[in-house]
Amino acid sequence: MIFAKYIDHTLLKANATVNDIKKLCTEAKDHAFYAVCINSYYVGLAASELRNTDIKIAAVAGFPLGTMSYKTKVYEAQQCIDDGADEIDMVLNIGLLKSGYYKIVEDEIKSIKNAIGENILKVIFENCYLTDEEKKIACRLSINAGADFIKTSTGFGTGGATLQDVKLMKNEVKNNIQIKASGGIKDTETTKQYIDLGVSRIGTSSGIAIVTSK
């Protein structure tokens, strides 16, 4: 199995330097990863580093808490696309979801999707903070809002991806939306398990280890 085409090679740490982002892009080219996933400030740099390649740029919006104002998240997503991003990984407003404000959550996702047009939108749930019923609701809201992917985690919460959560998400959405697993995925065997469950993308900072292990 060719794992590289599933991997969003990720660096979202607050202390990531310009040279770190350049290194990330070089690694993505060396290993033919599907995309790099970075904070919004570095989109222009990544676009320059990845010019004339097929590697996509996924930028995060409203990251990692999801509690920025509605307009701020929409603006950040649009700015990322203007700077050269191909995909947006947005964090939904977890507190509003848990408060039962489902229409506001759905409208926010829809507004970001409308702002970025044909570009890919992934909705990050942060499953470690949600009940199973809330995860199912988030799945339905994301589909209704026109998102392209749902995503398990930011990697900055109290827990990352789990096989159980991905099974739940897949059972809820069937083939109506794609799934990205992220957070704590570090080895080939775990990666294969997620792909076998139907995941289309893996978010990880351990991509090199995954594709080079025997």
Q: What is the string of helix and strand elements?
A: EHEHEHEHHEHEHEHEH
Overall 3D form = globular
Radius of gyration: 16 Å
Name the assembly state.
single chain
Q: Termini distance?
A: 12 Å
* CATH topological fold name: TIM Barrel
Summed up, the domain count is 1
Q: Can you lay out the helices and strands and say which pair or pack?
A:
Blueprint: E1 7-11, H1 18-31, E2 35-38, H2 43-49, E3 56-61, H3 70-83, E4 87-91, H4 94-98, H5 102-116, E5 120-124, H6 132-144, E6 149-151, H7 163-173, E7 178-182, H8 188-196, E8 201-204, H9 207-212
Parallel strand pairs: 1-2, 1-8, 2-3, 3-4, 4-5, 5-6, 6-7, 7-8
Describe the protein:
The chain is an alpha/beta fold and 214 residues long. The chain has a single domain (4-212), classed as Aldolase class I (TIM Barrel). 44% of the residues lie in helices and 17% in strands. The chain is built from 9 helices and 8 strands. Strands 1-2-3-4-5-6-7-8 form an 8-stranded parallel β-barrel, surrounded by 6 helices. Helix 7 (163-173) links the parallel strand 6 and strand 7 (178-182). Helix 3 (70-83) runs parallel beside helix 5 (102-116), helix 5 (102-116) crosses helix 6 and helix 6 packs across helix 7 (163-173). The protein is globular. The mean pLDDT is 97.
Provide a quick synopsis of the model.
The protein is α/β, with parallel strands linked by helices and 214 residues long.
Keywords:
9 helices, 214 residues, globular, TIM Barrel, alpha/beta, eight-stranded parallel beta barrel, single chain
